[in-house]
Design goal:
Order of helices and strands of chain A: EHEHEEHHEEEHEHHHEEHHH
Radius of gyration of chain B: 20 Å
Strand order of the largest sheet of chain B: 10-9-8-7-11-12-15
Number of domains of chain B: 2
Number of helices of chain A: 11
Radius of gyration of chain A: 21 Å
Number of helices of chain B: 5
CATH topology of the largest domain in chain B: Rossmann fold
Oligomer: heterodimer
CATH architecture of the largest domain in chain B: 3-Layer(aba) Sandwich
Largest sheet of chain B: 7 strands, mixed
Largest sheet of chain A: 7 strands, mixed
Strand content of chain A: 15-25%
Shape of chain A: globular
């Protein structure tokens, strides 16, 4: 597939011509991505910064969303029709694409397809971007990833000097490029070589900053960890304050709660919001004395469950690690629990 | 939470397909008290084809604006020619307490059926069957018991052991009597604590097990009861040399979405709502959180 070169101005103009809202994943450090897709100008400089504080998960699986109305006056049983139509996500990183592939497995593929997720998944146009900078907590290469996308995007951007190398990854992406960047010139061999060199440098940098953790795992090669009853988990649980930040910020955490909102007499709306397996209430069941009312009554078993879900259960369930090495939970944790260190210290 | 805060609001009456998360209308057609805590319910779906399910599956029952909870189906598909289905619901929380206040003709929401079922048409056929039920654990197993009794010739010896905490907590008392008097079923029951009305066995359910004369290689055992019961029943079954692959259990978790996505009923790498609630014990014997 041909690779093109565009200047920053050409790229900004191309995205600016988009008719619907465009959300810029790289520029969201001060915004919650699921609240405000930003129409208008593209913050080109953000594409050369590390990945944003929040992932674009909320565009695919909003923190709070309606799953449809029902009742005698609504009465249709239909799900919502309008979702991510016309939104272009710009600056989605390799780890975030990998996280979305994981969400596909859980929410879209299998026996039941989640209707709103599946629809957004089709509607959102994904313009990905190579990482040319990283945060201290980035560790994609330690979990079998790379800091540049290798697929799963409609369009990919690779920052090179004063512009970008642009590549389509899907028919839809090709059409988008053809319409908006018709005048772009094909990238020179020297530009391609410069991009590849930058990718190698970036991968080395991420690997170097994680060398001490010794965390060389992959989808097909997950670590062996002790079960949740092992006392070793308790040392980490002592630092956990059960805030749920790690699950909210995680691009693959997808657990949700369902409830009904009363809209009026005989009219209801089924709503879902993100839930967190770190919270005691998440596991609660009904029942009287003698029943096991919470299968994970101890915080240490809840913390273990989150880590084991990422590194043990998901590889067995989906053939994919549930951790893409974005490092957001490392940044978000109030107790300064570093998942890299958890796995490093507990693996057998 | 105010209505205005919900993102991505759904337009009413949109032309989208029915969501897997939205309840279908159903009507309560019969309700009877069973014990102090449990009531018997029969529901009929609004859709013409009724409920299509197999023994051991569950459905999400909801009351609009109050909530939704997973409940096992207690009737057998061999007896629901009209498409209705039965449940026994213990009043244990907000939704179930509200369900207890319903009267015939009232509307409920239903999603399902979901989950795995007892292999009544596969592994159970041609086998000796031993059902071991504790308390409300009888409820999902009743579906399988009715199923195999309705196709009695497809199975060999049928044994039912039932234990309740006390005589007043016994469920389906008339049906227990029928099981006791049937010639083609070996039935034994016990209560943990007797009262002056009780003339039968006293003791936990495992006290009934030494009298079992099993041919282990052609016996399938089905267990459902409170969590503590599994441990002790499984120990007894090991003494009787029943292989783990010939044991089926039905597990309870909070199946919130029912479709393997929301995470609430996850047991290590399994979802109770999709990989269960009926599990072959050999498949979960090494899963630490399961039992």
């Amino acid at each position: 597939m041909a690779t093109f070169y565009v200047t920053e101005e050409q790229l900004a103009a191309a995205v600016g011509r988009h008719e619907g809202p465009a959300a810029f994943g790289a520029g969201l450090t001060e915004r919650l991505p699921w609240i405000a897709p930003t129409p208008g100008a593209l913050d080109v400089a953000a594409l050369s910064r590390p990945r944003a504080a929040q992932s674009p998960k909320g565009f695919f699986l909003p923190a709070l969303e309606s799953l449809g109305r029902y009742g005698t006056s609504a009465g249709t049983g239909a799900g919502p029709a309008e979702d991510g139509r016309d939104i272009v996500l710009v600056g989605v990183r390799a780890c975030e694409l990998r996280a979305r592939d994981y969400l596909d497995q859980v929410l879209r593929d299998g026996a039941f397809a989640d209707p709103t997720y599946s629809r957004r998944r089709e509607q959102l146009l994904v313009v990905a971007c190579d990482c040319v900078d990283c945060t201290d907590s980035c560790f994609c290469t330690a979990v079998g990833g790379q800091p540049h996308p290798t697929g799963g995007y409609d369009v990919n951007l690779a920052p090179v000097g004063d512009g970008f190398l642009v590549e389509a990854g899907s028919e839809r992406g090709r059409a988008w490029l053809a319409e908006r960047l018709a005048g772009a010139i094909e990238a020179s061999p020297a530009q391609l070589e410069a991009r590849d060199a930058r990718r190698r440098d970036m991968a080395e940098r991420v690997a170097r900053q994680n060398a001490d953790f010794g965390l060389a795992v992959a989808d097909a090669d997950p670590p062996t960890l002790p079960d949740d009853g092992d006392p070793a988990w308790q040392a980490f649980a002592a630092d956990c304050v059960e805030c749920g930040a790690c699950t909210n910020i995680c691009p693959t955490c997808h657990c949700f709660y369902l409830y009904d909102q009363v809209l009026g007499a005989e009219q209801f709306e089924r709503v879902r919001n993100w839930d967190s397996c770190l919270l005691a209430s998440y596991h609660r069941m009904a029942g009287g004395p003698g029943m096991k009312l919470s299968p994970r009554a101890r915080l240490s078993s809840r913390l273990a469950n989150r880590v084991l879900h990422k590194f043990d259960y998901s590889p067995r369930q989906y053939g994919l690690l549930g951790c893409v090495g974005c490092g957001r939970c490392v940044e978000g944790c109030l107790g300064e629990i570093d998942i890299r260190r958890v796995v490093q210290e507990l693996r057998r | 939470m105010s209505e205005a805060t919900v993102q991505n609001r759904a337009p009413a009456g949109a032309d989208a397909p029915r969501s897997i998360y939205l309840p279908e209308p159903a009507t309560l057609v019969d309700v009877r008290p069973m014990t102090k805590q449990e009531k018997f319910f029969r529901f009929q779906m609004a859709r013409a084809e009724g409920m299509k399910y197999m023994p051991g599956q569950f459905a999400e029952i909801s009351l609009p604006g109050i909530g939704e909870c997973p409940i096992s189906i207690s009737s057998s598909p061999t007896r629901n020619g009209d498409g209705s289905f039965e449940m026994v619901i213990r009043s244990a929380g907000a939704v179930t307490a509200a369900l207890h206040r319903l009267s015939p003709g009232d509307r409920v929401g239903v999603r399902g059926p979901f989950g795995t079922h007892f292999p009544v048409e596969d592994e159970f056929r041609g086998k000796d069957l031993v059902f071991i039920c504790g308390g409300i654990g009888l409820v999902p197993v009743r579906s399988a018991i009715h199923y195999v009794l309705d196709q009695r010739d497809d199975y060999r010896k049928i044994t039912v052991l039932f234990g309740a905490r006390s005589p007043e907590e016994r469920l389906f008392i008339g049906e227990l009597y029928d099981l006791k008097t049937r010639k083609d079923v070996f039935f034994q029951e016990t209560v943990d604590v007797a009262d002056p009305t009780w003339g039968g066995n006293v003791g936990v359910i495992t006290t009934l097990m030494p009298q079992l004369r099993l041919e282990a290689d052609r016996t399938v055992v089905i267990i459902c009861g409170p969590p503590i019961m599994y441990k002790f029943v499984l120990l007894e079954l090991r003494k009787l040399q029943v292989a783990n692959r010939n044991i089926y259990v039905s597990l309870e978790r909070h199946m919130k979405c029912g479709v393997g996505k929301c995470g609430h009923c996850q047991i290590n790498g399994l979802y109770a709502c999709q990989d269960g609630p009926v599990f072959r014990y050999a498949d979960i014997s090494s899963v630490r959180e399961a039992i």
